[in-house]
Write a structure and sequence with these properties.
Blueprint lengths: L1 E6 L6 E6 L2 E3 L2 E4 L5 E5 L2 E6 L2 H21 L7 H16 L7 E8 L4 E7 L5 E4 L1 E5 L2 H11 L6 H18 L7 E7 L2 E7 L7
Antiparallel strand pairs: 1-2, 1-10, 2-11, 3-4, 5-6, 6-7, 7-8, 8-9, 11-12
């Protein structure tokens, strides 16, 4: 329901944050869900949407990217290629049985020594962005990121902006989303920066 992403400066860091709620209608089923799926060692996809589509689509994309790597002597797709592959699958499904997912896909490429962030929606649009937000979060966070994001930001600056967005959601949003997970993608790979509830707990 709430998904936020920001790209750092020349150090290449990409920060993704997502709420950890699994809800439908007036019911909350979980508050420790991980909605940021690791696609490769240096890329991840944050997804907002119904839990069934979130799980199905992220698993489908991740496994196909791994299959490509195994079929091509270990060659990994760039973040740009991953985003376009995901966009292609959304477009193919659009007229058959569309996935109700909105995506922020971030990654770090060794070839360019930079991170990149892509905005995809359920209608299969794809755009490279410096920052983005999906779901209800966009109503609260886009103005903050528009004001705060700038060229040459450090990874720490990007994390601070994402945390401001989360604070704003906690303050302003009608629906309680108490737990958020923040992940960072940089030259060292994908790592968890912070979470509200451990996804390993059942």
């Amino acid at each position: 329901m709430a998904l936020v992403g920001s790209r750092g400066g020349d150090d290449g860091g990409v920060v993704l944050a997502a709420d950890q709620s699994n809800a439908r209608s007036i019911l909350v089923y979980q508050t420790n869900l991980d909605k940021i799926k690791e696609l490769s060692s240096h890329s991840a996809m944050g997804v907002a949407g119904p839990n069934a589509d979130v799980v199905n689509f992220t698993e489908y994309i991740a496994k196909n990217l791994k299959l490509y790597e195994l079929s091509n002597d270990g060659m990994k797709l760039s973040t740009h290629a991953q985003a376009n592959f995901a966009r292609g699958e959304l477009a193919t499904a659009l007229r058959r049985g569309p996935y109700q997912v909105n995506i922020l896909l971030g990654g770090y490429d060794d070839s360019t020594k930079k991170g990149s962030l892509y905005f995809l929606d359920y209608l299969a649009s794809c755009q490279k962005v410096k920052y983005g937000s999906q779901g209800y979060a966009s109503s609260f966070c886009l103005s903050i990121m528009d004001k705060e994001c700038r060229d040459g930001m450090s990874e720490a600056d990007a994390i601070a902006i994402v945390e401001k967005c989360i604070t704003e959601i906690h303050t302003r949003f009608l629906i309680s989303q108490k737990n958020f997970m923040i992940k960072v993608i940089d030259k060292d790979g994908v790592r968890v920066n912070k979470f509200g509830a451990d996804p390993a707990e059942t």
